[in-house]
Specification:
Chain lengths: 92, 136
């Protein structure tokens, strides 16, 4: 089980937890396991098309998974996953 | 939220210094009163878009936490349009409990500061709710 750090904005959706221990061999599997347990997290992170929102950043042990293998990045018992939605916007 | 005049002036100064691009940053405070402006780099360097670098975002959020403050608002500027959330602002509003403060320089002689609760997961007619900004 890997450790997932939950930012304050997502804590209400997971019952207030700062960290979760989650089963899954990849970042994608870890996310799916969180969605299964806490469905409102999916609403916050996933677009209507079912894709992870491109402004949601994911890190494994402080490495951006975009620089690794994205959702296929492997995770193990000693790994920490961080979910960090972006602060972004603009006049468009 | 209550915004001391000096901080309001700092927000306008930041927005002006970044022209023609949008500025961005965060505001820490206590009990709804702003106490500190944390300027951030707009990694997009664009007149139409802002993105706070995720590592700077984490660093500033930790700094606000370390100071015993709350993250009261994420701020950015609109250089040519009103201080009202754009469609982009709503689509990218991942922080529904945090205020999104907008500094408009559309009228350079009379900058406008307004703040909103925005939630990208609510239906469009409920997604934006203005919160008064009281300059004190």
């Amino acid at each position: 089980m890997s450790t997932v750090r939950i930012p304050p904005v997502l804590r209400p959706a997971v019952g207030g937890a700062r960290e979760l221990s989650v089963e899954g061999g990849t970042v994608g599997e870890v996310l799916e396991a969180i969605y299964a347990e806490h469905p409102t997290v999916r609403q916050q992170l996933v677009t209507d098309d079912g894709e992870l929102h491109r402004f949601v950043n994911l890190y494994v042990n402080d490495e951006d998974v975009r620089m690794l293998e994205w959702l296929d990045t492997p995770v193990g018992d000693r790994d920490t996953v961080l979910i960090l939605p972006a602060m972004a916007g603009g006049a468009g | 939220m209550k915004l001391p005049r000096a901080l309001a002036d700092d927000l306008v100064a930041h927005a002006t210094e970044e022209l023609p691009n949008e500025c961005c940053g965060m505001i820490g405070g206590r009990d709804g009163v702003a106490e500190r402006v944390h300027r951030a780099v707009n990694t997009e360097a664009s007149p139409f878009m802002y993105v706070i670098d995720p590592r700077e975002q984490m660093r500033i959020m930790d700094a606000i936490d370390d100071e015993g403050m709350d993250l009261l608002a994420v701020y950015h500027s609109h250089t040519r349009s009103a201080a009202y959330p754009s469609r982009t602002d709503v689509e990218l509003a991942f922080f529904p409990k945090t205020l999104y403060l907008i500094v408009s320089l559309a009228d350079r002689a009379a900058p406008e500061i307004r703040a909103f609760q925005i939630s990208r997961t609510l239906p469009p007619q409920e997604a934006v709710r203005e919160e008064p900004v009281e300059i004190v």
